[in-house]
Amino acid sequence: MPDMNVIYKAGRGRIRKQNDPITMEHHYRIDVFLATVDSQILEMKNRFKEDVIELLILSPALHPKDNFQAFNIEQICQLANKFYSADFTDQEKLHLRTQLELFQIEFSYNSQLQNLSSLQELCQVLAKTRKSMCYTLIDRLIRLILTLPVSTATTERAFSAMKIIKTCLCSRMEEDFLANSMIMYIEKEIARTFDINSIIDDFDKIKSCRAQFHMSHTVK
Question: Given a cut of 80, is residue 87 above it in pLDDT?
Answer without folding.
Answer: yes
